[in-house]
Amino acid sequence: MLMQSDSVACSGHSVKGSLVAFENVIVPAGTKVVVLMGGDSAEREVSLNTGAQVAEALSSQGLEVTTVDASESDFIASIQGASPDAVFVCLHGRDGEDGTVQGLLELLDIPYVGSGVLASALAMDKVMSKHFFAHSDISTPDYVALRRGEPYDVAEITERLGDKTVAKPANEGSAIGVTISHTSDELPAAIETAFVHDDLVLVEAFVAGVEVTVGVLGNDEVVALPTIEIIAEHEFYDYESKYVTGMSEHIIPARIPQSLVCECEALAIRAHEILGCRGMSRSDMIVTSDGEVELLEINTIPGMTSTSLLPDAARAGGLEFPRLCEVLVGLALEG
């Protein structure tokens, strides 16, 4: 459910004013685009939904669209056979969001929507991106990284991070394998749940506050979209909250002071640039009661259904979903 109030303009980057720049991004009718979707990750069903809606949106803009399921054994031949001008990567999770498909498309010399190999890999790996954020003096919840087979001490972890923690696989999306532990007694089970999905697990301190997300569009010149406040029916924005109708609300702009809205938008741009992202990204944050902003993670291929967070924010800024998809193809063709 989307609740929208008046848009907020931040000094130096009025959202609607900035999006005017994308009016010059023109993709000729008949441009051939392969929408790469599906795959074999834990987020396959989400990817299929994203891909179907992106394909429909691009077709409505006059582009020639071919859909390809990356789980098919001959998907590379299918891509090449379509002779695309660009590939719109709608894969989520492993082997799609982590730089692997981006590397393949680089070898095939085909432009594609979104970030390159390095930025995709860094953003997908929550531990590695945390290192980058900490090195760049970006405030992010304190954390501990654990590797499968290596011993860990629950008492040491809770002494450092506090009793309430969040355990998550380092390389999964859509909150898959994420558990909040309210006491140290719950932490071992949470860690083991995360290890089901990855050999590397991130345990971070739980930070209470307003959960917000900020999308960013652009290549060399980037624009922050309106800040969205997320209200989840569950304790956090888990898989069901993300994808089941009625389990969350998106409030635009977030109900936080304008100065903090501007800080969130500036932080999303900074995170996008630090990792070297292109095309689009979406940064998730917590705004605490004392006005601190903590960056949780950045997504290089955020959900792209018509009601997903980034499209919701773009629509609030005046960019409807079909045009947003077309703009992203145009940004890919810029090189």
At the fourth CATH level, what is the homologous superfamily of the largest domain?
Answer: ATP-grasp fold, B domain
Helical segment count:
12
CATH architecture call of the largest domain: 2-Layer Sandwich
Shape: globular
Number of domains: 2
The name CATH uses for the topology of the largest domain is D-amino Acid Aminotransferase, Chain A, domain 1
Look at the structure and give the mean pLDDT.
89
State the helicity in percent bands.
25-40%
Structural class designation:
alpha+beta
Low-confidence stretches: 1-8
SSE string, helices as H and strands as E: EHEHEHEHHHEHEEHEEEEHEHEEHH
User: What Rg, in angstroms, do the CA atoms define?
Assistant: 19 Å
Distance between the termini: 36 Å
Could you give a short account of the major beta sheet? 7 strands, mixed
Strand composition percent? 15-25%
DSSP strand count: 14
CATH class of the largest domain: Alpha Beta
